[in-house]
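Researcher: Go.
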Amino acid sequence: MSSTVNGLKTELRRTFFVIFCFSVYHLLAQSKRGNIVNKSQGGDNYVNSAKDIVNYPKIYDNIFIMKVLFVMGEVEALGIEYLSSFLKANGHDTRLLFDPRLFNYRSPDFRNEFLEKVFDLRQYLVKHAKMEKPDLIAFSVLSNEYYWARDLAKVLKDELPRASIVFGNIHPSTAADHVLKNIWIDFVIRGEGEHALCELADSLEQGKDFRDIKNLCYRSDGKIVKNPLRPHIADLDSLPFPDRDLFFNIGYPFNIGQMVMASRGCSFACTFCSNNAWRKMYFGENYMTEPSYLRKRSVDNVIKELKWAKERYDPKLIRFNDDDLFYPEAWLKEFSKRYREEIGLPYKCFANPNSVNEETVSYLKSSGCKQVQMGIQTANPDVRKIIGRPMPNEIIKKAIQLIREEAGITLIVDNMFGLPGEKEDDYEALLKFYRENPVDSIQCYFVKFWPGTDILRQAVENGILSKEMAEQLEEEPFRGDINAKMDVHPDEALPYYMLFETWNYFPRIGWLLEKLRFHYFMSRFSFNPFNLLKFIYMMVLRRTDRFQHPRHGYELSGHRYPRVAIKWGFKRILLYARELIRMESGIV
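Model: Structure:
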């Protein structure tokens, strides 16, 4: 105990010392004058050229080089890596501008306004962007990242007025009209972006007309034009492997594991999920039943990528980001055999309870799966029908038993509070459900009503949102992550949210809270003491490269490992400081 306390004291002293040093530098740097000196391409967190990645086959005949700067915050983005590799395969140069967003995380647990200002790297990001002199700046934007991306894009446009700015991913796709009202955002790409972004880069480089590019949205004569969508990419094997160098070169924790997508799309269309919005965008009235939305890579192609990644990056863990790796079963059977024989690394995946059976679980166990994350959302099957997940509780109970008890695989479950049709009795039923069917970790979220999803309509029908508020949310999303409780969420959900979160990190305290029903009392405080305990717990964690427990899982998010993120942030700050001092002193 004393050694732990001494260790924490040492870490605190180090933290305050580095903050002091950075503050002194910050004051000195602000007092200096001089122009920024452009340095040679590259740097410790950038890829030098397409040749540094892989000699991908050229997809287009006409090659026009353009510098594209991707901007991302907090987490690794597999979508950006695919876009980057596709652009490099066609001769363009890509870079990454990464903002760790220290203490400005999407999750509210470790957000702190004072520390956010101390660790704000925006001025350094802008200076690095000016050094890169990009032709095109590309943001991949989820709804809960929209305000951060919008504000940073404005700063970049002010400093780099000749660079075009394009937004893509789910939020710009579903709210393109609203996004393009910001005059500093030049383009929006809806849907899958590989071909559209590459065609846009070609057109801008050659000075050609971009107005006929499918998936592209833009302003013309004061009006917003939304071009029709091209079909989904049916053959995923035709895409080059994702450009992991973008994030790998940043360093820890992005160099400890490998994220992989063996498919695109999902066989389900849950009303709260982005897949619901994607389906509606592409298939209209048939969006719930259209089977072509789910596309799977061949087993051979996935294994080739993993072999390439093992040789190039030496990952310790693999994370499959597919919505449901278990489906289809024939694919999983072939994959598990080859994965065990040719790859052999521990991995995590996601599953839908409907796809879990004795065979699929045996395939995962034999191939070395260490962790499964499965969505349950609520213990009320009637509410699950409303949100597009029709399944009885017996299927979920069976899935828990097969994965956790019989296969011995660590199981994380997801739950959502504030769903349409949900009552306070359902939270008590959820508590009883997990007493009878224990799992390793219970992840809790407050439902968000994202643009383009059916759950917006359901929220109005159930009196959660007014019609006016729902119309506003179609354009302007909620601020904050899915962890954050909003005014529209029921207050009676908060005690259960606190209880499950406490269980995850402090099982004995959680058990005591439940027995004493003390979580009801604690939920009345505006300050949640268990967030502080969780912060201290996570600050002590030293490693992320293991699946020893769900809370140690390979998540690649700074807010899950604040101790690692802070150290990384200090390292970046010191590197930026060194570079800026050299530039401002005229040293190239």
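Model: The CA atoms of residues 375 and 492 lie 22 Å apart.
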